[in-house]
Structures
1.
Amino acid sequence: MKITLVTMPWATLATPSLALGILSRRIQEALPDIETNTLYANIDFADWMEQQGGYGADDYDYFSLQSYFLGCGDWVFSSALHDDPSWRVAEFTDALKERVDETRMDTCLRLHRTVPAFVDALARQIVADGPDVVGATSTFQQNVASLALLRRIKELAPGTATMMGGANCDGTQGEALHRNFPCVDYVIRGEAERAFPQTVAAIRDGRTAEMSRIPGLCWRRDGVSVSNPQAGQLLTPAEIPMPDFDAYFDRLRSSRVQSWYEPVLVVEGARGCWWGEKHHCTFCGLNGSAMTFRSKSPHAYLNEILTLAERHHVLDFYAVDNILDMSFLDSVLSKLAEAPFDLRIQYEIKSNMNMSQIVRLREAGVVSVQPGIESLSSRVLKIMDKGVSGTLNVRFLRDAESNGLSVAWNYLYGFPGETPEDYVPIIEQLPALHHLHHPTGANRIALERFSPYFDRPELGFPDRRPQQQYALTFDLPESELADLAYLFTTSEQGIDDKLSDRLDTAIAEWTDNHPRSRLTRVDSGDRIRLTNSRPGFDWQSMTLSHPVEVELFRALDDPRSVRELVRRASGIEDGWDEDRVEELLADWRRQGLVFVDADRAVQLATTDENQLLCRIRRVSSGRGGAELALEQAEEPTCVTIS
């Protein structure tokens, strides 16, 4: 028996498919007599794009990374799914003409006309190899490309069993896919490490009766779609093997894509979210049916990272964990700090990590993090159920900057119950943060399936319908689209467009000023020297020498209330009363030395050691991947780091 596993566009090109790497390994372990081939059709398509139209990494990334909320990537392949190069061209153009620029629109239309030829050629290539089973993974904008491929394979080789799995197949989405697309014989909903080998074995042995006992499987009985209940017991970490990425690197070596990106290895230390188990962030639709937090043994995870680095000679890693297992700080990460490789790791974490924990991340090779900051307003963060305050988020940004740690975050708004008072004081203070890592933008939240806002309409979004992109792409009634969709249109909540535009403008100014902005401190014991180059403030240096000022500034390394500061000041000779402390805080706020929110203040100066000569930034170069680069400050000249 032979299996072909396929990852279609618009899967990212810079990383191998973790899903297919794991599943190919599971088949090797559970069914060693079965031949498994993994096909990186996303790389094939990138090569085809370049040959057909001279398109490059920037064009591919637009569909892979930037246009998800518009659905451009899925619509491009709708022509192949419906075997119609003119499929809803006028409707798509009219719907997105104000949101997609002329060049991108031209690319969408041109690819839409030509992708049927690519899908046909790919399907013929796969069928010629004679697989008994073809499985396609579907996450983000892979849905339509995968469906189009499986439809064409079924036309060419009706006896080939076709399967789909992935995040787009979870819950009712998987049921809707299977119900509406007869070209897909099987859909696996939820985790597939058990169900996939069980399904393959049942197909191989002709044991149709076994299908009804495979958790999460959608199959057909007498031509009617049947959906088995999803597994009540999630996988144990020991059941998640080390992925096999050989096929990715074999394909990459013969592709033009290798000149577009530096490859990044994908690893998984944990599944689920330990915070979400207790407090599911109201807007978050991640994890779907698998919120329960589970992590691999530190020994197995460490071995996996080091083995993959040595095998593939790649030092850049992206951990797909939704949140760092904090026990890894004392196990996996402490060992990585001693590893023979100079790794560069990207991780998702919680933003309440303190300075000592951030230092340990950097020592282990973590250079880029996504901490889920989302907002700097404590009240809005409470509405989100984030379990963190605005001043703690600012503390994290400050300490990350002090340690050369790059931070990826977005500023979110549009929450039920938020008011202008949650934004105006924050916007007024943003110039004081220009030396810290800025958000990539400000966005109104989307209503996502699996989020509390979706599951509980009483939280503020009672009216919803599938986003327009689904009607442009699929030929299905709205009732079916409602089961298939992940993103939904609903009434806007929270602040109005005028205030959100003001937030956008403030963040754009932050982004523009960041490269030349600096606020650093040198603590000499009896005094603290501060150096400033942020454009919004007219001072370059100052020294805090009064014992109370020095003590209070140090205390503000962590968020403090006025009452706490008065208590600290009272222990010093010539202690200050509340009025004098409030006057000092007001002065420091005017000078951009502190950030204040919800009766808490935190000081903003980074430690001088890492910032005075140069600022190390984790950035994407023109070739993609993760590289270290230098951002020169206004005054000193950056030294070269080799």
2.
Amino acid sequence: MKSYYVIILFVFLLLGCKSIKESNNSTATATNSSKELQNSLLIWHQKDYQQDNIPGISLEKWYSSNKKKPKNKNIIIAVIDTQIDLKHEDLQGHIWTNKKEIANNHIDDDKNGYIDDINGWSFTGTRSGTYVVWNRYEYVRIVEEWGKYFKDKTESQIDSKDLWKFKEYQRAQEFFKEKNTYYKRWLKSLNYKTALYPKAKDTLKYFFPKGDYAYAQLDSLYKKYKINDKEFKQRRDDDDRDLGALIGSMIANINMGQNTLEKLQDERTQLDSIVNKNLNLDYNERLSIGDNPNILEKGYGNNKVSNTVKGIRTIQDHNTMVSGIIAANRNNNIGIKGIVDVKIMPLNISPSGDEHDKDITMAIRYAVDNGAKIINMSFGKEFSMHKDWVSDAFKYAEEHNVLLVHSAGNERSDIDKATNYPNDLDYDNITEVCHNFINVGSISQKTGEKFVSDYSNYGKQNVDLFAPGENIYTTGAGNIYKTDSGTSFSAPMVCGAAALIWSYYPKLTVKEVKEIIMDSGSNYDFEVIVPGSDNKKVLFSELSKSGKVLNVYNAMELAKKVSKGVR
């Protein structure tokens, strides 16, 4: 998974420095009734456009009209992601338990190849019982591994069977060069601002004894005391420490939301790890796991899917947020209401950086073999070293009637042109290898030109539909609730809808469920700004294959007809 900090900061900048990561602790003191009212207003994504004038997924509309009981109450959704907060109050009773395994007896009781896998598996767990925090990016791995065969060679020297790899190697080299330069410059800026912060903070006490300054006051002060017109980059490179430089650095901090020294230091630490681990050709994250990432096998990793180790950064937040959207308890009158009553099977493959294709492959196969009906994959990357492994796993899931739901990504790109993995395409990036894969983009609460989230990927062929993903209120690690944004939170909406369909109509095939979700979505007949463009506008329907937004009410109505052989 791309560094969560980097994605958050990127979107933070896109939204004009408005934070999209907010913990909401007011529920701690609110009464149950006020909690429900507050959370009902926050859960906009479950509303109905016709009833509420909010472009949600019409979940509340369906629940308020449904009088029937589900036929299948045992649906399992695998969430292939980071670790998870198993102790979160709103997920209690909604985590999958492997009833064929005896806890902590160090024996593979069910003989599935995984010892003591009570709640799932950590494919990035280490032999010592901890976990990997930093993965290299896939393009870094390609430059390091494939460079042994392709470095300094020309296309005419390459065998035709290796030509695809050679071209990917060349693309990875360009990617690596660009990103390495970018992040090193970013780190240099953070080092400079961190060094200046104490002196700048102390100096500003002379002008603002109470520390009550904001951008406007600092800008006015800067214009009065600057001794040159250097841009921030030039001041950084020259290591300027004059009064104008001090004030300018604090303005930059305010613009970036870096309002404390601790926050600056934490961001610098994370960025330092990106430069020296994610982008390091010599870093090997698999040493502590003890496996070979180029050989498929069972049993590597460990069973600790919710692992907290002193001195090691925890990585439980993303999965906890995704899982809450799907399965947070609907009946306990606390926190939020998830979409559906299911069991979550947490499978860990996502440290900071890019997931290994081996881990993606083995997690999908684990999920299928252990009863998952739906698999959520809220992660992505620009390269894939073992695409054939992942494609075979997709086909394996389809053979077992399992649906795969993937987040389209947050790069503001047309993924009909810019490759995004994993996907359901063959090496030609045209032919679909399976029919059980749904790729989901993100919409906002705003109808009109800003309907599509400005970070969301799109594609008339390779994004299937959209679902709410912006400012989504959900569960967070550490037993909190928070608001966050990303296509990561659109995918679980579709997972929840699919689970509802199968709960009431269990005989439907995976192909039928996919078609139902695609065909039953809501139409919005207006133009929207294309993400990443200079305010270019197109009809919303042109940004995905279905041209629609997930609608649970419509999906359940259509599923009823399809189950009776009526279309």
3.
Amino acid sequence: MYRNLEDCIVDLERNGHLVRIREEVDPYLEMAAIHLKVYEAGGPALLFENVKGSKYRAASNLFGTIERSKFIFRDTWKAVESVIALRNDPMKALKNPFQHIGNGLAAWKALPAKRSGGGPVTAQEISISDLPLIQSWPMDGGAFVTLPQVYSEDPEKPGIMNSNLGMYRIQLNGNDYELNREIGLHYQIHRGIGIHQDKANKKGEPLKVSCFIGGPPAHTLSAVMPLPEGMSELTFAGMLAGRRFQYSYIDGYCISLDADFVITGEIHAQETKPEGPFGDHLGYYSLVHPFPVMRVKKVYARQNAIFPFTVVGRPPQEDTSFGALIHELTGDAIAKEIPGVREVHAVDAAGVHPLLFAIGSERYTPYQQVKQPAELLTIANRILGTGQLSLAKYLFITAEDKQRLDTHREVEFLTYILERLDLHRDIHFQTNTTIDTLDYSGTGLNSGSKVIFAAYGEKLRDLCTQVPDALKDLRSVMNPRLVMPGVVAVEMEAFRTYPHVQQEMQELSDAIRERGGLETCPMIVVCDDSDFLAKNLANFLWVTFTRSNPSHDIHGVNSYYANKHWACDNVIIDARMKPHHAPPLVPDPTVEKNIERLFAKGASLHGIL
């Protein structure tokens, strides 16, 4: 049980899970580049002891592997798992904690503890400019806090039990922000803090916000946990930490006494400033948009404080381990929430939100000899209307019939669907709807489309295991490459305009038809670099499903409409980069060269890679 982040660092080092970096490292790009290399190598947590321009140390990759994360929470993991397993009435354990001591939950561990006055974190008042100003990617708008715990209270029902603790990125400098007086908060109005801001706006008063950084690792995880309705993040934080969340109020602001840093301030109605760009989890920059600006009141730091950070980018990254950790704790919560669902997998390699694989049930018409999707379509619409899953663009769904399926075995799962997909019946579009704010493949911010591929029944086709002759030596396409059974990637000239694409796709369709069709290849992906896309499964999933908007970028060989239903003989997905897309994240080659010194013989990270 850790009282603070320092306790965790010491424990990790003692058990061989952490390495100290003694050399001076630049928070501009270098720290992030080092983190990325160590994470990719499956390496240890890192403690940067000499951050250029700041007297404070910084730590990263604490949650870099699921094994290390479970090690950190080894004393409380089973107890928390057993409490969350009470899904039918998750509040039962917290309302009557003494009845559940056998589960390892005692009342004093779960409920926040209010103290009078200050604590370790209020040891000194500092400025934003004193913090490690870490910029991860070359085109980022400035330095960001990437592991914040942003705290706000319901203006209509003040108090810690009606609070929200969320992980909303914080921009510390750059753009139009007045250094040390303003910071940017990136959140949507429908998120917890956004609801609080809306209530404060209606009351005509600013929203008081506290940004906690560091503290026991349980506090960081609690800020991203999808908790059951009515369970406070701070109650969960105490439960996972095995120690009550310690807090007090100063100047009307909640202070996490065990945090390493706390930034307090106010958000005023209609007060925004340009925020971003920011290298995000889809593997591209989220661009500049107006988001709430926070007027900084005070910045606190404990003695010898440590600044935790992570690096967000094309998956897998450290937040992938976060997701795996959450899934282990909560189980498949969606399967419990939606009747008929056995499994839903938000595919990490595709950036999580763009692509879902799901297994449902098919019980509507057991008396019919011909098996086809029916209940699956009901389930699919429920999935696309549930929480964060509603941000998805692509949903592939089936039901088990004669063989066991696993959505995490991506090639096998997609192969099963493509073998059974009736291309004239089983493709269903939803247009002019919402997608992820960070996804720029659509028609505007938060705006795009969705498609459901719902397949069930007997196998309809054998899938090609090499590039079909019909796709070789075509005038309009180049370099065909087999991606997986039934999927071929081809190159075309760079995207110009959507009217021009219609002409390109018609020519491709005509050429394939003239060669007798492509029965064994239900999916063709048009891209800029087919060698890259076909190199591995991760590249295929990332390029195809992050660079396409179903309504605009799905085409078909011999496509047609029948009673407003779209059908085709082969699906063509145009996954080329387009002018409205955000640029992908590319490391700075000079920085990559510079950090080699830290991995050389005698340096802190020698032998890690």
